Amino acid sequence: MSNSELRGILEVSDQGGSLKRYVVREPVAYELEVQRRWAIPVAPVLFAAVGVPLGIRGKRGARSWGALSCTLVALSYYVISTFGRQLAEQGWVSPILAMWSPNVLLALVAVLLLRERETFE
Questions:
Q1: Helix (H), strand (E) at residue 85
Q2: Distance CA 13, CA 35 (A)
Q3: C-alpha span between 10 and 3 (Å, rounded)
Q4: Could you read off the pLDDT of 16-59 as tens digits, one per residue?
Q5: Do 86 and 22 meet the contact criterion of CB atoms below 8 Å apart?
Q6: Rounded to an integer, what distance in angstroms lies between the CA atom of residue 32 and that of residue 16?
Q7: Is the dihedral of CA 34, 39, 44, 45 positive or negative?
Q8: How far is Cα 39 from Cα 18, in angstroms, rounded to an integer?
Q9: Which distant-in-sequence residues (6+ apart) come within 8 Å of 31 by Cβ?
Q10: Looking at residue 114, what is its pLDDT?
């Protein structure tokens, strides 16, 4: 579906319309998809912001530690994203929070690593 189609379905739902003609009848699924389409393209920039400070550590053996750390960061991103999606589907959190929280956490890690890098120089 295009973004305009997804927005149209969400408007129908917001106005109290029925979603019975659609395969997925839960409006949260459509909102999650809209948020996912905006949040996922931001992630590579944030992964780079985390990976660079990990990759340029000067200590011996630190590069292999950086590769392992990047793998753990990527796995953590996936787990948090999946967990957030499940929480949103069950109605515990908003779709915006579910899809953007992994990016926010990744940005925080990037800022902390970049600040740490600045203190060592």
A1: helix 62-89
A2: 17
A3: 11
A4: 666 666 655 677 787 888 889 999 999 999 999 988 887 776 66
A5: no
A6: 19
A7: positive
A8: 28
A9: 10, 95, 96
A10: 85
Q: Are 84 and 78 in contact (CB under 8 A)?
A: no
Residue type, 46: L
SS3 105: helix
Contacts 24+ apart (CB under 8 A), 66-73: 73/47, 73/106, 73/109
Separation of alpha carbons 103 and 121, rounded Å: 27
Distances (CA, A) of 64 to 41, 54, 57, 121: 27, 10, 10, 21
Rounded to an integer, what distance in angstroms lies between the CA atom of residue 16 and that of residue 10? Answer: 10
pLDDT tens for residues 87-117? 999 999 999 999 999 999 999 999 998 888 7
* pLDDT confidence band for 65 (50 / 70 / 90): confident
Of the candidates 112, 98, 105, 120, the one whose C-alpha atom is nearest the C-alpha of residue 34 is 98
CA distances in angstroms from 82 to 22, 39, 47, 68, 69, listed in the order given = 24, 13, 17, 21, 20
